[in-house]
Amino acid sequence: MSNPLLEVKDLHVEFDTYDGTAQVINGIDLIVERGETVAIVGESGCGKSVTVKTILGLLPEADISQGEILYKGENLLELSDAKRHARRGKEMSMIMQNPMSAINPVFTVGEQMLDVLKWQGQHRVGITDWVRDKFRSEAELRERAIDMLEQVDISAPERVFESYPVELSGGMRQRVLIAIALLLEPDFLIADEPGTALDVTTEANILELLDDIVEEHDTSVLYITHDLGVAREISDQLNVMYAGEIVETAPTETLFEDPQHPYTRGLLESIPQLSRGIGAGIPGKLPDYTDPPTGCRFADRCPHAETECREVVPHLRRTEPEHAAACHLFEGDPHLDRHQDAVTEFPYIGPPPWQADTDETEVDVR
Ligand SMILES: Nc1ncnc2c1ncn2[C@@H]1O[C@H](COP(=O)(O)OP(=O)(O)OP(=O)(O)O)[C@@H](O)[C@H]1O
Ligand code: NI
User: Fold this and answer.
1) Ligand 1 geometric centre to CA of 50 (Å)
2) What range(s) does the ABC transporter domain occupy (predicted)?
3) I need a surface site. Which of 112, 130, 292, 360 has the fewest CB within 10 A?
4) Which ligand is nearest to the CA of 13?
């Protein structure tokens, strides 16, 4: 059977807020196979960052009320802080959403890179490695850091090595962050919207770069984005997230060819409006996490919602061998039939946007 690198099972994450308990993550299941790039897409506030920060153990204020996070078969939630920290150092690495907040402004790029090489690497290595690392000369470490800067396509690596973060452009800083994240050759890389702070061309470059590096080092990646186009480009498996739940998951191409959940379909249809943000094409907004709906969290925005949808939580279920959706329209065969009707009457579910384009072209030609 499969032996995934990461398996998140029925994860629930809550926060205490002034308005009460915010039930942000509501039973997420997630699998990252070895060597695979998995994306999570969803609109702003749907819980993407909370999910990845929980995986990395970076949210001490969060209450993880239920669930398991298995990494190489070991439940991270049961590990001591020290052990978790060690995993994070070598095996897992993260590229943060905001490059400026993730880099320390008072140290040069080089100082920060050397720091990672000297200290973080130590947690993971055996004693022989440790002794070897300890006596490895500063010059050697410097060489390795500069080599990594070169690998992320920084053309003047020596100069960047000596620079302070403020002296660099946003794109350059993001490259530096990628270099730092890859320094210890992690098995697992989490990238939380590494492109958001950048202009489109720079983002495309960064994506390409990440893709190359990941292939070369056989790294598994969990990639967070609110951009379906980006997710399509970079991922093998796609998870659509809505209000702290995974509402649909499938191999990326399958998901684009046969989107099933009404939310996914809404997202695909609103691609032309992406400049206004994902989800902007779907009327309504995310529910209040301190007072979430009883049934489907998307029901209020779903023109096809029925009584059952408002009363019963739809769980993620397999609809095809590699495809799962959390929607009552897909529960059992009779419901599948019901879905066939829904396809024609559902306002968001016309033909997918790219097919609509093709049809139009054909009409023009005639
Ligand atoms: N430490 C916290 N305490 C209380 N609520 C939090 C905390 N961190 C996040 N939240 C809430 O959890 C929800 C999900 O936030 P999250 O940052 O995961 O969204 P996101 O999907 O990453 O959005 P974006 O695309 O804007 O980054 C939000 O409503 C947010 O206010
Ligand atoms: Ni986020």
Assistant:
1) 6
2) 6-268
3) 360
4) 1
How far apart, in whole angstroms, are the C-alpha atoms of residue 88 and residue 347? 45
Instruction: Quote the ligand 1 centre to 155 CA distance (angstroms).
Output: 36
| Pocket flag, ligand 1, residue 61 (CB < 6 Å) | yes
* Atom 9 (ligand 1) nearest CA: 50
Q: What residue numbers bound the domain in which 295 lies?
A: 259-365
Answer whether residue 119 is part of any domain.
Answer: no
Q: Mean pLDDT, 10 residues at a time, over the chain (366 residues)?
A: 86 96 95 93 94 92 95 92 79 77 84 84 54 69 91 91 92 88 87 76 77 84 89 93 96 92 87 55 90 95 90 88 87 42 39 40 36
Residue 190 lies in a domain: no
Phi/psi-derived region of residue 67, left when phi > 0, alpha when psi is between -120 and 50, beta in every other case: left
- How many whole angstroms from 143 Cα to the centroid of ligand 2? 34
Task: For residue 53, give the ligand 1 atom closest to its CA.
Answer: 18
Q: Where are the alpha helices (DSSP H) in the chain?
A: 48-56, 81-90, 99-102, 109-115, 121-124, 127-135, 138-151, 157-162, 170-182, 200-217, 228-234, 252-257, 262-269, 307-311, 332-345, 353-365
How many separate domains does the chain show?
Answer: 1
Question: Is 12 among the domain residues?
Answer: no
Which tens digit of pLDDT belongs to each residue from 202-257? Answer: 777 778 888 887 888 888 999 999 888 889 988 999 999 999 999 999 999 999 99
Q: What is the ipTM of this complex?
A: 0.99
Q: Per the domain annotation, does 4 fall within a domain?
A: no
* Nearest alpha carbon, ligand 1 atom 17: 49
Is there an atom of ligand 1 within 6 Å of 45 CB? yes
**Encoded amino acid at 31, one letter:** I
